[in-house]
Design a protein that fits this description.
single chain; 245 residues; 6 helices; alpha/beta; Rossmann fold
């Protein structure tokens, strides 16, 4: 069994598992449920999924089908009752909380439907936020990454603006820049176009596709927008907590 180091304080070695050569995510038989009062609500029922590096994948399904739970599992935000999660060869469930946080900060970027920008911070400061919790990135590199990420999404002219001075489409571009600033291998997006009109929705998908091609970042995003289905390289349909074939 090989191991991959995450430079944790205790020098503990998380397991590195063998997966398909290009697989960046491998989920096996995930089971997860939530309690609502006295009722147990199943969210995932033995779900298995593999994502290859560089894919541009949409997750679709009805409300309550398990889309958000799936993204939370891959994003190391939640954990299953049973099953396995492997991100870039690392067995996530073998890690402690600090190691998971480190893996998440180094490997994964997040985009939210409500933008989640801090209103009192400038655009540049919002994009820099995830880098501030990474002690390995010096200040000079943080500034360069912020500049490059904003340049990539066409928002470099807004560096000193506050979020409420931007349109919805511009704010989502800034949110994408924030996700890219950490140079992630994988970007997870929960309904990234839900709060945008049709024109801006297509512009955001165009931008994500361009970044996927130029940076070879793997994108996985949930959506209800059927008009976007023809734009993706792969569609994953979830129903009742499992992948529907």
């Amino acid at each position: 069994m090989h191991v991959k180091h995450l430079n944790d304080a205790e020098n503990r070695e998380p397991q590195l598992l063998t997966a398909t050569a290009d697989a960046i995510v491998r989920l096996s038989s995930l089971v997860k449920s939530y309690k609502l009062g006295q009722t147990v609500v199943p969210a995932l029922r033995g779900l298995s999924l593999e994502l290859n590096r560089g894919e541009f994948t949409a997750v679709i399904g009805a409300s309550g089908s398990g889309k958000s739970t799936l993204l939370n599992m891959i994003g190391c935000i939640d954990e299953p009752e049973s099953g396995s999660i492997v991100i870039d060869g690392v067995d996530v469930l073998s890690l402690d909380d600090n190691e998971r946080s480190r893996l998440r900060n180094q490997k994964i970027g997040f985009i939210f439907q409500s933008f989640n920008l801090v209103p009192v911070l400038t655009v540049a400061e919002n994009v820099e936020l995830p880098l501030l919790i990474n002690p390995t990135v010096p200040a000079s590199e943080r500034r360069e990454r912020v500049h490059q990420a904003l340049e990539d999404v066409g928002c470099s002219r807004f560096v000193r603006n506050l979020p409420d001075q931007l349109s919805g489409g511009q704010r989502q571009r800034v949110a994408i820049a924030r996700a890219l600033a950490g140079n992630p291998d994988l970007v997870l997006a929960d309904e990234p176009t839900a709060n945008l009109d049709s024109e801006n929705s297509h512009r955001i998908i165009d931008l994500m596709l361009d970044l996927n091609a130029r940076r070879r970042v793997t994108f996985l995003f949930s959506t209800h927008d059927e008009k976007l289905m023809g734009r993706v390289s792969r569609i994953v349909h979830i129903a009742d907590g499992v992948i529907k074939s």
